[in-house]
């Protein structure tokens, strides 16, 4: 093979590699758009309404009731919890899948902590607060 043939093949190879690289970038963009559209399909509809706390690792808060309106859970009966009526207990609820929701939980120290609500088909909510201590595990059921 002569030097002339090598120089002709190299630009063709470089052109093919660039073409492949650009086509790969478009595929990643398309996948990102699909994921965003899929996230938008999940709603908070299943969470709307009134919930009563029936379990967890801070029993003094059992009996507390919350009303979920839009993307917030507002305390309607604080029982002996130390919270006030109308405190926003669940802040910025966001659906991450059909049955799982991320939000911020109001702690007894008045700080908000990242948390996850797991909605179960029997109208039960399991709460996992990303903070150690009393109240980081909770169970809620829907009030009729």
Automatic annotation (TrEMBL):
PROSITE patterns: PROKAR_LIPOPROTEIN. This is Lipocalin-like domain-containing protein. It comes from Maribacter sedimenticola.
